[in-house]
Specification:
The chain has helices at residues 58-91, 99-114, and strands at 2-8, 15-19, 26-31, 44-46, 52-54. The protein is of the alpha+beta class. It folds into 2 domains: 2-54, no CATH class; 59-114. It has a 3-stranded antiparallel beta sheet, with no helix packed on it. The protein has a two-stranded antiparallel ribbon with strand order 4-5. α1 runs antiparallel to α2 (99-114). It is elongated and about 60 Å long.
Length: 121
């Protein structure tokens, strides 16, 4: 679990972002480390009882669908890089990627499979 402080529109309840320290106008919440809110805060809002709900607006569905397609495409585009690295290790030749680069790639691929990898527009 992770404690975060969310910025939200007090009229609509829409969560606009989050931070790790309290600031005026934020609300403290606890979420699992892999919670979707940490990836796309704009897809969530506080209902009239103060509970967090997932937004089912068309805009939110489109944004989530686009992100998921990007994550799947990232996995497809990097399959060959993982295969090449494994082949180079098996053959005992110098690898194109350093161990750090390879491990970073594996972490990003894991995040893509978990749905937590984001992309800059």
């Amino acid at each position: 679990m992770q404690k975060v402080y969310v910025f939200y529109d007090k009229e609509t309840g829409k969560i606009e972002g989050y931070g790790s320290s309290p600031e005026p106008g934020t609300k403290e919440i606890e979420v699992p480390d892999d919670h979707r809110l940490l990836v796309n805060p704009g897809l969530f809002y506080f209902n009239d009882k103060g509970a967090i709900e997932y937004s089912l607006t068309e805009e939110a569905r489109v944004a989530e669908s686009r992100l998921r397609r990007q994550q799947i495409e990232f996995l497809k585009e990097t399959d060959w890089i993982v295969a090449r690295h494994r082949d180079q290790v098996e053959l005992g030749v110098t690898t194109t990627l350093s161990e750090e680069e390879y491990n970073n790639l594996l972490v990003r691929r894991h995040d893509a499979r978990e749905g937590t990898l984001t992309f800059d527009e």
